[in-house]
Amino acid sequence: MGQFEIIEFYLSLVRRAQERGICCAITSGMACVAYEVADATKDCDLLCDPDMDPAFLELLADSPLGDSPCQYRGNISPPLDARWHRGGWTSHFEWPGTEAYLDVFGIAPRARSPWQQEMQPPYAHPHVVADMKRTTRDKDWPFISALGVKLVESGDPRGWLHIYDEERMKDLRARHPDIPESFLKARPLLRLLLEDASALAPALRIERLFWEQLSKRRVKEYEHALRPYLVAVRRALVGKQLSLMEDHALRVACAEEHLPQRPLSASALDHMIAEAREEAVRWMNPGLERWLPDVIPNFSLLIPGLHSVP
Fold it and tell me: Are the CB atoms for 191 and 182 separated by under 8 Å?
């Protein structure tokens, strides 16, 4: 099965979900292709409102690709259940024998606002996609910048939060000189466009390094919390051939005993941020630390009650 057929399958799946009243949106690679900042992908990352996880699971169970039924992917996938999705876990699915892979999120990682509030169906808003792309993968960062440019050019100043290409940032500033004060506060290095452009390139590098270190530490927190669950699922699945719904019930039972619903606490986040800042500064001029952003807003949806310190 070719890439075009797989993409059409994903789009059909989302259309059927929306017809059933399920709030969901395609994000990441497929969204970048739709927004014309990437060329191709065969994987699909999907945001699904946690309250609608049961309905979406039923849809997956009723959505074979050819002769291949949908299954959880391997032992590592947490269950598609709101209790864990609200805590930042992701569920992974596949259609064996094909190249179709689906990752389902409830909370958009690093998003500053609920993704459900603004979408461009069937896709998540570019602002949300750009926030989610702040990973350790080199290939993601040009997409973030391209999405940021598109946002600014369309009249959305949130794009200024996402541009990591010095020359594109300078060019954009020449054509769109007004940067709202709230965005200068949210991303301090934007002031360098107005005051000292010579320091912009290293400030962009240290900010990206900071985000990469933070992403790396967040993934480690979840990997550590996942291990007991992974072992329990592996043992429970030995010798069994299960339907998706049977497998789901097994994973829920394992998760209730072995998988914390919210593995990332406010104190753990504070520690991660401090370590990420320290690591970023270690490789750069320490004087650049003043240009690093406050990232608490990017985790406020994941950790209830989280607030920046004025």
Answer: no
Which residue do the tokens 């509030």 mark?
117
| Of 67, 57, 110, residue with least CA distance to 297 | 110
Enter the pTM of the model: 0.94
CA 187 to CA 185: how far, in whole Å? 6
Angle between helices 200-237 and 266-283 (to 10 degrees): 130
Give the chain's end-to-end CA distance (angstroms, integer).
54
Listed residue (82, 31, 28) closest to 55, CA to CA = 82
Q: pLDDT tens, 236-270?
A: 999 999 999 999 999 999 999 999 999 999 999 99
List of E strands, 157-203:
none
Surface-to-core class of residue 70, CB atoms within 10 Å of its CB (0-12 exposed, 13-18 middle, 19+ buried)? buried
Torsion of CA 161, 162, 165, 171, to 10 degrees: -60
Tokens in use for 16?
Answer: 């059927």
Question: 3-119 — its CATH code?
Answer: 3.30.460.40
Cβ-proximal residues to 308 (8 Å cutoff; 6+ apart), any chain? 294, 296, 297
Q: How many CA atoms lie within 13 A of 152 on its CB side?
A: 24
| pLDDT tens per residue, range 209-218 | 999 999 999 9
Domain boundaries, the chain: 3-119
Strands 119-120 and 123-124: antiparallel
What is the H or E stretch that residue 293 is in? Answer: none
